[in-house]
Amino acid sequence: MRLREWTADDAEPVLRAFLAEDMRAQSAEPIRTRDDAVRWIEGWQGRGHAFAVELDGRVVGNVAVTGIDRHDNGWVSYWTTAEARGRGVAARATGLLAEWAFAERGLFRLELGHRTNNLASCKVALRAGFAAEGIERGKLVYDGVRHDVERHARLATD
């Protein structure tokens, strides 16, 4: 596995990932065409650090740290393609991202959150070394339904 910068050549795997029903709501703008996927890739510029997750030479996901503040805190996000799920890819990639963020970017605290009904994402966070810190009630709304979010964090000193 390796993490690398996104390029416009990665548009096809991004498009395939976001055409999956469970990924459609994971982007602020719909990704339905190759041009949409290129815009998604280009949209990371200046927003933080996003990396394509490569496994056996194929792009199978994304890990990112954004929202970096003056306190050296950052917000982590991740996704994997359907074929990569259940293989520990997201947890390993998120762990690599955390190591990079602490060593190369000098961050101290990384945070992430997931809906409380997303047990797979919770497992990713825990396996990547992010301790659960609490529940944010009613934080997200999808299709008119409010969802609680569990917050996790990992410190450079963990």
From TrEMBL:
Protein species of origin: Nonomuraea africana
SUPFAM superfamilies, A to Z: Acyl-CoA N-acyltransferases (Nat)
Superkingdom of origin organism: Bacteria
Annotated InterPro entries: Acyl_CoA_acyltransferase (IPR016181), GNAT_dom (IPR000182), Ribosomal_N-acetyltransferase (IPR051908)
Residue ranges constituting the N-acetyltransferase domain according to the UniProt record: 1-148
Protein name: RimJ/RimL family protein N-acetyltransferase
Pfam families assigned to the protein according to its UniProt record, in alphabetical order: Acetyltransf_3 (PF13302)
